[in-house]
Amino acid sequence: MQRRQFIMLLSGAASWPLSVRAQDRARRIGVLAPLPETDPVFQRNINAFTAAMKSAGWIEGRNLDMRIVSILGSGKSFLEAAAEVLALSPDAVVAITPVSAEALHRQTSAVPVIFVVGWFDPVEKGFVTSINQPGGNMTGITDLEPSLGGKWLQLLKKIAPNITRAGVVYNPDEGSISEPLFKTFEEAARSIAIDLERVPIRDEAEIERVIATFAHHPNGGFFSTSDIFTAAHRTRIIAAANDHRIPTVFPYRFYAVDGGLASYSPSQADEFAQAAYFIDHILRGEKPANLPVQTPNKYELVINITTAKALGIEVPPGLLSIADEVIE
User: Fold this and answer.
1) pTM greater than 0.90 (yes/no)
2) What is the CATH number of the domain that holds 221?
3) CA–CA distance, 8 with 320 (Å, rounded to integer)
4) By residue range, what is the domain housing residue 17?
């Protein structure tokens, strides 16, 4: 379903008969979230989801019962958290990030699962049979767009023309970046004469050391595809990059808000509104097997001009003019 159709669906919800809009019991939705409920990024995204659900006629405390199970800081593994959310007997589960989706995939083939947020191929992961006909109990939204890596590199080069090398910051233990995706990054880097380097960081203790080592050689910048680790430890990663005067491009707005130089990515809030479309249809009797996987509807360019000034970078006026948001 395209964005315009989805908006029409929401705008028409108020006119649906009460027998369609109301339910005999509150329908239960589980949310498997890597970030804690107190994280401002999670709060913004889940608020977008509940707002879209409300527009479609589903209201918490009336006909919707939403239960959130968070992982980071809880001491639970992803499999344990997945088992916990499934024990709530949900009508459907929203799985935030492919790691959450993987944990649920391993534990249920019956409960509908909607995945959202993450640079992954759901067919390669085995979550769905095909994009247009998922065929099982899973469907959702994937951020995977192979050309996006080239856009990050081009953005990095436009902001910092002197760079000759670019690093990809990621946690290899999460498996969030496949080898085919790396190849698209390497091809994009070659096309603009930049040497691409892998910059793996496995735990918090490595952040400063790894970034300092990368900064030891001149004319470098880096980007991140965002996994759970880099999202959870973003303030330390950003601080280390800025301390070493490394220009950075990140994949989501919240990195730029927290001090990253720039971001270009799908709007996560918009994706969570898309997730509400899937949940709404499932609660009304549709099967995930018949709901095609979607890609994001909206992309946003955010530039942190305060960080640019601190790094001694003068952002081209043309780039500022097309930014969706400039943080000062």
Assistant:
1) no
2) 3.40.50.2300
3) 33
4) 3-143+268-297
